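Researcher: Good morning. I'm working through a list of sequences from a screen, and I'd like to move beyond sequence-only analysis. For each chain I'm collecting a predicted structure so we can compare shapes side by side. This is the next one on the list. No need for commentary yet; just the structure.
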Amino acid sequence: MKVTFNINFHTVWGQKLCVVGSIPELGSWEPALAKEMNYKGDGNWQLELELELTSPQQTIEYRYFLSINDKQIFEEWEKNHQVTFEGHANHYTLYDYWQIRPANLAFYSSAFTKSLFAHPCNTYERVVKSGKKLTIKISAPRVEKSQSIAITGNQECLGNWHPDKALILSCDTFPDWHIDLDANDITYPLEYKFLVYDNDKHQPLYWEEDENRKLDLPSQDFGETVMISGLYFRDNLPLWRCAGTVIPVFSLRSEQGFGVGDLGDLRMLVDWAKKTRQRIIQVLPMNDTTMSHTWMDSYPYSAISVYALHPMYICLPQMGELKDAGRAAFYKTKQEELNAKDFVDYEVAVGYKLAYCREFFSQEGQSVLSTPEYQEFFEQNQSWLIPYAAYSYLREKYGTSDFNKWDKNATYNKSQIRELCSEDSGAYPEISFYYFLQYILHVQFKSASDYARKNGIVLKGDLPIGVNRTSIDAWTEPQYFNMNGQAGAPPDDFSVEGQNWGFPTYNWNIMEKDNFSWWKKRFRKLSDYFDCFRIDHILGFFRIWEVPLDYIQGLCGHFNPALPLTEDEIEQYGMVFNEARFTTPHINRKFLPELFGDLAEEVEGTYLAQSSSNHFVLKSFCDTQRKIDALFAGKTDDVSLRIKNGLFAIANEVLFLRDPQEKEKYHPRISASHSYMYSELNTSDKYAFDQLYWDFFYHRHNDFWKAQAFKRLTPLVGSTNMLVCGEDLGMIPDSVPDVMNKLQILSLEIERMPKSPQSEFTDMHNLPYHSVCTTSTHDMSPLRSWWKEDRGKIQRYYNNVLHYEGQAPKECSSEIASRIVENHLATNSMLTIIPLQDWFAIDDTVKRKDIESERINVPANSNHYWRYRMHIPLERLLSEDRFNDKIAELITASGRK
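Model: Good morning. Structure tokens for this chain:
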């Protein structure tokens, strides 16, 4: 069979077009084996191939790229061209349009194609009697479920421009539409246009924009199929916007639950979202975090696996009942005790849920593991499931999650672990229990995800930027991680001393060598359940804040990658560089009373060594924050805490940090102008340091970090169909908005965290469309708590933003909360996602009395207990008609769908 590829693309001398595709004749996606096209003049390129069909209906995919000197320099958007060859045609002539990244890329994501605008696969068969078929394909994602794409034009077969006689296109794989026409019925030139048709009312709704489309083709031969593809529907519709809720799944509460939110509760939350006209539910990470079986494991951003789900999310009623009436009654009693609590009692709830699962596994495990469904799950997931089960088994065997203490298993050995997990291994009964847990979680989560899609609700997941340093990933694939550094964040509104998350940083150079396969596998696993996701701390793809292992706090970190300064560069700013003075922590005696009060003399004698007439350094037994932390471990009295915090502060007293790789280069310490050492500089040195600091943190790295982000994010965003959002809060380089805009990654916009340092509050009237707008995040205080934090700021907000007159009330009333939520719904942001606590704040009959218990996390506290729980069960929430109607009315009034 003959296939002719045609495309119009203007090049310059030395450039050539190539076609690469899914079959050997097109290189099997290997660019070096792609077929070079022939130039025919006027920008027209052509390639002729002879293909042998391997089946009566064979589908191939392909794409075009531009090359020079045999190097690929420019290619189409990641969406491939696709054609299905049918055996009755002996010649296919393909006329393609170069596919660029569309301006409405979000509508091509699975959030829209599988949920919001999901279409049934309606096919309108049209018989082509002449043996000369003309197929026209168009991509049109923004079409409601009750609508279709139709075509009309200047031919009798297309209704002669009568919209009522327009032909409906088939929708085989939404958002792609096509129509088959008999070429014998067409006289060229053909003029035509597409329109949107209302299926319910059987009438046209609106035409596409701009001029008529024109087609002038040579006459076709018998048995020839001509295909036009790469077209996009041209609409000019109002901005499509929707609203939703963000809440951790563990915070959900129901009568069927077991003291902690689970996947059964998530289904009920979908019902509530639909009832209130919401379209999206955002959750926090749901990966397994089990390390110590204590409340310390409640931190959802410290996963032990980027694939495995936390067993606490199993819905016990969905899993099944225990046959032993006595045991069932026992767990019923424990369920009632846990459900009566206003917080998540993490250790107790997880402990009893796992115990129940073990008893149910003893009862039904073997029958579950013998099902074809389980076998299919195991085959598809064994690459991560086997290491996960082995890790969980070894964690319990050795009493620690630190794999460095696992004797012969400290270093991961694939064949050794396969043997441990084999069915004839003595460990298999325990190993298979972990398989069972993950299978049940998968089945329940897939069911909840499908239920959400069926009801037009998008589930939005959360991709943590880091993993725990004793995680399965660090154990099995250590080449991807730098264990000598700790990931964190520089100082911001969340924490003035920066954040140290303790995660290892990434070896991006190694990741790049296999085209970021580890990240792509993470994305694929997320897409099993989610159609939208948030990249936690997206700035980590530009650069990460790396803290040396000696530090507990985040102030003495540095950006990685970065362009550290040489001594000569520092001195070019007019500052004489004193390496010993500026890079070794020092403290002047006059500042000790400020740090230690009446303990200053005791501290000076015990912990400090004199380095000059007025200055001290830390003695060797406490000269790092890690040593200081160990000295005061377990001591919680006020005196110990004051000394510990003061010594921590001294350990931060440097102006420059030596780069760990390039030892002769230096990073200025973040927030150094607030240090005691800076205050001792003379005026000229302060001025020089300020100039150096400003250039280093706000100018020097812009192009460098932009290049890093494009290199990492472009292939990753292109590898997924999910709608991608980014958490771009904190110290934002100027390059971030440009990268996110080009890749159409939705930004995060928060009114009380403006991205302009000149503004106290974000300008809500000018938010970008490709953004997520919210009132607060899990790292912030909810609205009613925030209202009590800074009276001066709230007064300005009350008068200048909400435009109320007079004195701001002491409490954030339901009226004020409603006004704030209404303002957020009115923005241009595609998504307005409100925390559940802030939805509650708009109605006095449902909001919680205890305001402070609504806080989810305090970032400044690295040992925070994540235990927030809804104060009313979902069953009651579904019946709160006045509250639910108010939400629906606010959303409808804002024009959100």
